[in-house]
Design brief:
Elements (H helix, E strand, L loop, with lengths): L1 H17 L4 E5 L3 E5 L18 E3 L7 E2 L12 E3 L7 E2 L12 E3 L22 E3 L21 E3 L20 E3 L3 H4 L7 E2 L14 E3 L7 E2 L12 E3 L7 H6 L8 E6 L11 H5 L2 E2 L11 E6 L7 E2 L1 H4 L4 H4 L2 E3 L10 H4 L9 E3 L12 H5 L2 E4 L6 E3 L11 E7 L6 E3 L6 E6 L6 E3 L21 E3 L9 H4 L13 E3 L19 E3 L20 E3 L10 H13 L4 E3 L5 E2 L5 H9 L11 E3 L5 E3 H6 L1 H36 L1 H11 L14 E6 L5 H12 L8 E3 H4 L6 H10 L1 E8 L1 H4 L5 H11 L9 E5 L10 H4 L7 E3 L9 H10 L2
Length: 813
């Protein structure tokens, strides 16, 4: 009987636990955590365990909290009430929560209606968030019990005044009046006065964050009461960079960890003061340079000039570790960059994305070798998008003091980089957007230890000959992440140590298959082949991928952006695409083109596989039937025709088989070669071609119209006579030949074509001289001349006998 009762009690207990409105789990930081977030709750759940230490009931529809509602949870250390509709809280709502350290009340409707003793028992509270509550003033009267409060996040109001109650927050370290990132919206502060933070003079506030404010009025002494401040963020406000820098006078001779004045410029520039706000001078930094600050950010301020002497001063110069002046329009003073090496502790330097084009003094100056001395402790250097005006400039540049440099970014400078020295210890190199069309074999020697390399959009398609060399990447033995996207590549260079490669991006190129030997890439986790021209993958390729995936279960391939072929011959590929684990995309509905030219999706093809397969099978049977009938009917017709003219067709067959055909030889002609050329190519013919063919051991007799046609003979008759008496003809064709306005060049081509006969195979041989390409030749000539009989002179070294040996071999002598 007792056993039955125990079973019933356990069953009821299990069912009761399954009906909890909230989830329970053990959190590494907060212990037994009750997760009631976003469950449309109107009240605190009654059935939560009493021993929970954390409760998240945010994003529900609570409107009020009554006295003692949390008293049954005395062990709570974390309580999240964010994003409800709370408009009323009774004075004893947090009674008994002596252990509470984090209380989040942001994004409610509490305005400033807080009972005086609401925080009476929260003497251990560490963090309090009251942002986005529609406050019109701060309820400082409720703060005195919070003697251990460390971090306070407040709603912003147009004219903030921190009342006397704030002076009781003796341990307050962090004050944030900025809710943009966590909760959306901007800071609404419009005025900052000298008395705004007066009540904080008895606290030890170290961090003040007021970002994204629309400050229209700011008094100079607003920060003078914050004598222990170390971390200051006043970003994206209307104060102006000059005024912001002048707010720092209370901190002269002090140490600070961070000063951020991002986006503090005034816009538009209507007055002289607004224009001055874009120049950093010694007057601007007279307080800043007297502060030992570790991190300074002046990004996105429209700065176009930083005077050399404005920052080259101690203690600033000897203390700064992080300097960010990115997203400005800096065009000078170049001396600012020269003195960077003097910043002995600088580890992070970002000068990327200067939006204005540089005034480049001369191409020759930038094309000459350059040297840049970096700070000796620099770890991160970002110069992306800096030299926008130096397009097509060749750089041979050497960096010094790079033993500690790990990240080097200089993409989108639109320059042709020839060689970089001094980056042997760098882990991450990003040179995307520059021109590497003339890349050399030894370029990567300076990146011998790079692990992450991005060469996106670098015109590598113009370096086809270099990329085909198996040694082009021989120095990249440590490479793990490689980005070669957007380069119109058709071939993939050899990686010296493919087993180390983890990520390879070949997207936005023109690959028609996957150009890897998959078995060697044992660590490859992601191969991006998206937006290429892959129509399908062969059966052997798919099999190799599956075998490689069995050995390396992490390997995935992106193929989105390719337009596949889903015709009858590729149905197996479409089915494989749907089920394989190698493909990265979860949505496998890729566009594909059917045999009739219409576009559909791979999901539809897979879904209708049976009907499409039946259609394809029937189509094949019909094709075979039609082919058989065509052959049958043709055979009957041919039999009938041959039976009417047996002698004629017997002779044709004999001629096709070579019987009874007597080919003409050079001995039967007065000249071996007729040489056709234009006047501009006479030096090539007489100085190179004639000595190589006539003045040698096995000489050939040449017909040269300027030499053989006698005075008084009509030129046309002489040319025709030359072709008739020559065994074969050599046409020397250049751009001048094709553009010859005298029409003799065209006459020469026509005469050569008329001289064609079956008794002399390959009677016309073409020599291409200069920049002329095969496709530039007249269509009439291309239709009769075999491609093997067209030789490019530039493919052979000057003075090399190989060209003339190849010409003789082609002619058959």
């Amino acid at each position: 009987m007792l056993t039955v009762v125990l079973i019933i009690l356990l069953t009821l207990s299990y069912c009761h636990a399954k009906n909890h409105a909230c989830g329970l789990h053990n959190d590494q930081q907060y212990g037994l955590f009750a997760d009631c977030k976003g469950r449309q709750l109107q009240h605190i759940p009654y059935d939560l365990p009493c021993n929970i230490t954390a409760l998240d009931i945010s994003e529900n529809i609570l409107t009020s909290l009554s006295n003692g509602i949390f008293q049954k949870f005395p062990n709570l250390t974390y309580l999240n009430l964010n994003s409800n509709s709370l408009s009323q809280i009774e004075s004893g709502v947090f009674r008994g929560l002596f252990n509470l350290t984090v209380l989040l009340l942001a994004r409610n409707k509490l305005d400033d209606s807080f009972p005086d003793d609401i925080f009476h028992d929260l003497k251990n509270l560490h963090t309090l968030n009251l942002e986005k509550n529609g406050m019109t003033s701060y309820p400082d009267r409720v703060f005195p019990p919070l003697i251990n409060l460390h971090s306070l996040y407040l709603d912003s109001i147009p004219e903030p005044v921190l009342g006397s109650g704030f002076s009781k927050l003796a341990n307050l370290k962090v004050l944030q009046i900025d809710s943009r990132f966590a909760y959306g919206g901007d800071c609404s502060i419009e005025k900052l006065k000298n008395t705004t933070f007066q009540s904080l003079n008895e606290t030890r506030l170290e961090v003040l964050i007021m970002n994204h404010c629309n400050v229209k009025y700011c008094e100079t002494g607003v920060l003078k009461h914050l004598m222990f401040l170390k971390h200051l963020e006043l970003c994206n406000n209307g104060i102006g960079i000059q005024k912001s820098l002048h707010l720092l006078y209370p901190f002269v001779g002090r140490n600070m960890s961070r000063i951020w004045f991002d986006g503090s410029f005034t816009f538009p520039t209507q007055h002289k003061g607004d224009i001055d706000d874009h120049v950093i001078t010694s007057e601007s930094t007279k307080y800043l340079t007297q502060i030992c600050v570790s991190e300074l950010s002046l990004r996105q301020n429209g700065i176009y000039l930083i005077e050399t002497g404005s920052v080259n001063k101690d203690p600033f110069r000897g203390c700064i570790e992080v300097l960010d002046v990115s997203k400005n329009i800096i065009v000078g003073d170049v001396g600012f960059f020269v003195i960077l090496a003097a910043f002995s502790r600088l580890k992070y330097f970002d000068i990327s994305y200067q939006r204005q084009v540089y005034d480049v003094p001369s191409r020759e100056l930038l094309a000459s070798p350059a040297a840049v001395a970096l700070p000796q402790n620099l770890v991160y250097f970002d110069a992306t998008g800096v030299l926008m005006g130096a397009a097509n400039t060749v750089f041979d540049i050497t960096f010094y003091n790079t033993d500690n440099l790990k990240t080097f970014l200089c993409g989108y400078n639109h320059v042709e980089i020839k060689r970089v020295h001094g980056l042997e210890h760098v882990d991450h190199v990003d040179v995307l957007g520059n021109d590497f069309g003339a890349i050399s074999y030894d370029f990567f020697q300076s990146f011998s230890n790079v692990r992450k390399l991005s060469m996106k959009n670098c015109n590598l398609q113009n370096a086809k000959d270099t990329l085909t060399n198996p040694d082009i990447f021989r120095d990249l033995k440590e490479i793990e992440h490689l980005d070669l996207s957007s380069n119109a590549l058709r071939i993939f260079p050899v990686i010296p140590n493919p087993g180390k490669l983890i990520e390879l991006n070949l997207s936005h190129n023109v690959f028609d298959t996957i150009p890897l030997e998959y078995g060697s890439y044992t660590s490859l986790a992601l191969l991006d082949m998206s937006f290429n021209i892959i129509g399908e993958l062969s059966k052997d390729t798919r099999s190799s991928l599956e075998v490689a995936a069995e050995r390396n279960s992490k390997m995935k391939i992106k193929v989105q952006g390719n337009i596949f072929s889903c015709g009858c011959e590729n149905l197996d590929f479409i089915l494989w695409l749907m089920v394989t684990t190698v493909i990265y995309e979860s949505d496998r509905n890729f566009p594909c083109i059917q045999d009739n030219g219409t576009t559909t999706g791979t999901v539809d093809v897979a879904r209708n596989y049976q009907s499409i397969h039946r259609y394809c099978t029937g189509k094949l049977s019909l094709s075979l039937t039609v082919t058989f009938m065509t052959v049958f009917v043709t055979s009957i017709v041919m039999t009938y025709v041959v039976s009417k003219n047996p002698t004629r067709y017997r002779n044709i067959v004999m001629k096709m088989m070579g019987f009874g055909v007597q080919y003409l030889t050079p001995k039967e002609f007065e000249y071996t070669f007729y040489v056709g050329y234009c006047e501009a190519d006479i030096p090539f013919v007489y100085q190179k071609l004639r000595p190589a063919l006539e003045l040698c051991n096995s000489s050939a007799r040449l017909f040269l119209k300027d030499r053989e046609v006698l005075p008084g003979v009509v030129i046309a008759d002489g040319i025709i006579c030359g072709f008739t008496n020559s065994w074969k003809s050599v046409l020397v064709i250049s751009d001048d030949f094709l553009e010859d306005r005298s029409q003799w060049s065209q006459f020469t081509i026509d005469a050569a074509l008329y001289s064609m006969t079956d008794l002399i195979p390959n009677r016309i041989i073409v020599l291409l001289v200069g920049a002329v390409q095969m496709e530039d030749l007249p269509e009439s000539l291309l239709n009769v001349v075999e491609e093997e009989c067209i030789l490019r002179v530039d493919d052979y070294q000057d003075g090399d006998e190989t060209l003339w040996k190849e010409l003789r071999k082609t002619a058959g002598i």
